[in-house]
Amino acid sequence: DQTLKALIETFRRTPERVFLVGVELKDRSSRELKDSLNELGELAETAGGSCTWLEAKLYCADLVLAGHDDWRVPSKIELESILDDSRTGPAIDPTAFPDGLGFDEEGSFWSSSPVTGSAGYAWLTDFIDGKSYVDAISSSWHLVRCVRWKMMPLLATVPSGRYFIDPIESKVGDERTGLTWHRDLPPSYTGCTGTVGATGDSCTWEQAMSYCSDLPTRGGGWRVPTRKELLTIIDPTRAEPAIDDIAFPSTPPVWFWSSSRVAGSFADAWIVGFDGGTSSWDGVSHDKYRVRCVQ
User: Measured on CA atoms in the order 51, 39, 74, 130, is the torsion positive or negative?
Assistant: First the structure.
């Protein structure tokens, strides 16, 4: 049907498509794809409610579904990749995942990614509002949506050869997503008012959008990344900052703007924290943060 065709086309053209898990688009009919997506959407209810992080890992490891027994808890970025920033409550595609908020509509799902520097904590994604946060692995109970991948699972660490660095042009190419990032952050953003006592060191959302679009150097065509694009360069095995410090040196562990507005709000946009990888939102007209442009 047209809805499913549009869904497939969206998956194929988004930079996040490499993180879509549990289904393989290639050589699959529309019917098979829809069945696979529905299977994933029903997993939370199948789990029978919430569980601790270790219980979630055991549940997925023991799961046999649709003839497969290689299910696992998704990593942080894998879970974030199925967020839909155009929606809220649930912040996920209801066609692909009809049970988007899971058992009792609790909405928070475990990832397999532990929090670096905070023993006993792991990352979660809230599919009610779309935020990422952390919670205690042994004393907190949340849902789990298991996943499988025919190829090697997406690792938490940055694979060797992922980034291609051009120090002359100050660019970083990401082989995984096909995006090119502005490598070196300026000490002062042209056209941005910054914070008190540090003029130009940060921008409102509107100033950030103008700064990137007006950036004339290095080929032009720069823009503010979407939230999901920004999340792809988070490295959950690092903290303060949570990013590859060779590819992106001198990145401060602070909030960065994305171009993604919050669903249903003209006043707020998504931000991503490079202290550890949290995502939240703030006001587009008055709050001020850093920005890393992308091509």
Answer: negative
